[in-house]
Amino acid sequence: ESPPNVTAVRRKLPRHLGRIVGHCLEKETERRYQSVLDLRNDLAGLRNEVETGEILEPKAHDAAGRRPWFRPRVAIAGLAVAVLAVLAVWTLWSAPLLGFEHRDWVLIADFQHPEQEAELSRALSLALGVGLQESDYVNVISRPRVTSVLERMQTAADSPIDEAIGREVCQRAGVKGLLVPELSAVGDEYLLTVRVVEPISGDTVASFAERAGDEGDLLDRLDVLIQDLRRGLGESIRALRANRAPLARVTTGSLEALKRFSAGQISWDAGRYDEAVRLYEEAVEIDPDFAFAYASLGSAYGSYVFNRVGEAKRNFDMALERLDRVGPREEYVIQALFHGKFGRPEDAVHYYNLHLDRYPDDLSARHNLGGTYRELGDCRRAISEYRAVIEIDPLNASALINLATCLSGEGDLGESIATYGRAFEVRPQWRISGNLNHEYGMTLVMAGRPDEAAEVFDQRLANASANERGGARRSLGHLALYQGQFDVAAGHFEQAALLHESAGAPSSAGRDRLWWAIGETARGSQDQAALLLAQAAGEVPLESGWIWLRAQIGRLHAAAGRIDEARAMDEELQEWAASNDEIENDRQFRLLLEAAVSTADGQPGAALEILEPLRAVEPRDHEILTAELVQAYVRAEKWSTAAETLESFIEMELIFYEGMVPWILAHYQLGEVYEELGRPEEAIVYYTRFVEIWGEADSPLPLIERARERISALGEI
To answer: What value does the mean pLDDT take over residues 324-335?
Structure first.
């Protein structure tokens, strides 16, 4: 006799449990479950029923008001055994694997795969990571974080993450579980498996598998596997439904497009930028609705590597038009990236915060939010975001560097230098390469340690790369200029330009000559400065896209009284802006040039009509904007406002980039303004500071002699 349905015996058991038990107790073996996997899938449905509150209504009483009673005691005994067995399996299966809890971390190892399926496996690896990261329950450790750990292990950064290496990374980074995926060919079919490994013991605590009929079925089967994996780690059915976007929508329905995109990411990370962009372009050609590939193209074209603003905006627009083709994790990030580049930084902050409300442990987004706060001049909030990143990932060298930069801006030089040191322990090469070498060295200068700064720059000079040596020469020129060694600075800038030209970096060579011209203008060598600016303009033509740099060249022409050259560049940039997409940074520098031309042309009122609205909406301390305001206020003889603006300018302590020489000259200029205001004591203070900075210059500076004369004259009053 067939056993009764368990839900007829216990009133409030889930309906699905009755079906499962009945299936287990079928008399004919071929009608029972044929595998544990089949039972597991049905138990998933049972869990769904419990979590969503769906239960079987109590069975009706019989006519006499009695509950049904089943006489066959053997059947009831068998039923009890089956129920206990099913409940035991269900309980064990329902407990989160590894004792996983909300916001715990996993590491995904590289796919194990047949040699001929390497490209396919890379694409599936990307898809697996994306699918898991749609969850706000599971955190996936990023490749940059893995790279930091590998370097501490003295293992090559591009090493494949197999099970052994993955376990060690997990242990060092405090990661709860290791996921080891594998792709196998089974005849014409594929088998996808993911093992969940406990990192310390190496035990496989669970294994999930899906079979795909052909390559075209792989993404769909991987999608199913991801949902099973998320459930196995303890994510609720409700959460899965809330954060459930099919892989084909979040990424692409085309494996070929996904292959190109994943290969493009690898190329970009390896510094093969042209190859990366080509692969991204191929991905969107295969799938014209691949939203995240468009966003990646937008970021690539908008980067310093390409600086192709029009292409960047076009691709971001394509991504924004396809936001219905991304998951919740990507939706706000794409909008934040767009507004950070083409919109208002405040809007970027808004979208980053929306994203982080849902995914608070997304370290990349939190790091970018810190950068946006820095751009807004809000170092306090930026510091908070960087520290939040470092709390989770103490080896995050990028966050450490940016924290150090903010601390320097806040005047905490001791902690800034110590934080740079922590970053360089993680990434020693950073200390002697790129802008980080320059920024660290100039922080040492601010701390009164110029000899150490010179040593840091000299270490970069030993680099084999001509581009790096050019950067080192520029930094040494910068330091020499700060110390008033104009001849030494000129030699360094000349060598920097030649090295950058040999490295195929004309924009860098143009910036070297701009720096050189700034120094020549400061010591009164106007003809030499004019020649250098003409050369710089030739190295960054309008079509190169370096709008802000051309505007800077034009501003220096105006400051030196070469109004015709400045006006020509101003008209050129205005014409360009009328027919091209213009990012906010380029627009600001173009307007600053326009204002500089007006001031030099004797129209400070027209300049202030441009500059004061800019200042009203510019939340950060913009050194170039402030410098132009000073010139306009002085020409307009608005002495009190000029004094206030000069004081704020000097407080910025701008010695890092192009604002350094105007910052030094501001001390002399403030002395003059205080004289106009009849405040000789303050005038003496700033004349004296100016002499302290450049008084030992290797060239006779008329302004130094004038400052000394005014100190003497005012002291006699």
So the answer is: 90
CA–CA distance, 665 with 523 (Å, rounded to integer)? 11
Strands 177-186 and 104-108: parallel
Grade residue 466 by pLDDT with cuts at 50, 70 and 90.
very high
Q: Is residue 699 a contact partner of residue 523, using CB atoms and an 8 Å limit?
A: yes
What is the sign of the dihedral through the CA atoms of 518, 524, 526 and 529? negative
On whether the pTM is more than 0.85, the answer is: no
Residue type, 457: F
Q: Which amino acid is it at 149?
A: V
Q: Which residues pair with 104 in a beta bridge?
A: 138
Rounded-to-integer distance, Cα 717 and Cα 712, Å: 9
Q: What is the pLDDT of residue 91?
A: 45
Residue of 667, 671, 683, 599 whose CA lies nearest to 635 = 599
Beta bridge partners of 194: 181, 208
Q: Are 202 and 195 in contact (CB under 8 A)?
A: no
Q: CA-to-CA distance for 421 and 401, rounded, in angstroms?
A: 9
Residue 112 is given by DSSP the state: B
Residue 613 phi, psi (nearest 5): -65, -35
Residue 300 backbone dihedrals phi, psi, to 5 degrees: -65, -50
Q: Distance (Å, rounded) from C-alpha 144 to C-alpha 369?
A: 18
Q: Is the pLDDT of residue 251 over 50?
A: yes
165: β partners: none
DSSP SS3 for 210? strand
| Pair of tokens at residue 141 | 């450790």
| Identity at 693, one-letter amino acid code | I
* Cβ contact 280:264 at 8 Å: yes
What average pLDDT does the segment 526-544 reach?
A: 93
pLDDT at 56: 38
DSSP label of 101: -
DSSP E strands: which ranges in 58-188?
Answer: 104-108, 138-140, 177-186
| CB of 401 closer than 8 Å to CB of 420 | yes
Contact present, 321 and 289 (Cβ < 8 Å): no
Nearest to 496 by CA among 474, 514, 481: 474
Query: CB neighbours of 86 closer than 8 A, spacing ≥ 6?
Result: 17, 20, 21, 24, 43
Q: What is the pLDDT of residue 16?
A: 67
Asked if pLDDT for residue 90 goes beyond 80, the answer is no
Q: Are the CB atoms for 525 and 487 separated by under 8 Å?
A: no
